[in-house]
Amino acid sequence: MTSGFDPQKQGFQLALNIESNGLVANVTGRIDSVDALIALFMKIGVELQRTGVRSLLVIDHTFGAVPPEDQLRRLFSSVEGQGFAEVRVAYVDARGTAVSRMEVGEIMGREQGYECRVFDNEARARIWLHYGG
Fold this sequence. Notes:
alpha/beta
């Protein structure tokens, strides 16, 4: 999926697919700002609202940095009302390099009422989406 990808180049690519009752978002490229992250989640939100699915699996293959807490708060404010509160969200750090930093986002999301979890393994994320409570 990332063949020919230059990790220094800005921008992300998003592929959205419906699987059973959920939306799968595969993200590649580079995300280095909260604005790019907001743009990503706004695109996903459009599809959540259009499809009415009950679960979302985000598989993040991107390069970049996890925004600090104050910028993550901006992300959550920006996506309010975009359909994320109605779905169970599993976010996979496919490269496995930032899960501990992403957990801050998970905690903040849970504090705001989102049913979300961060994973470093896609199989575990899928199990949680389908069977976890």
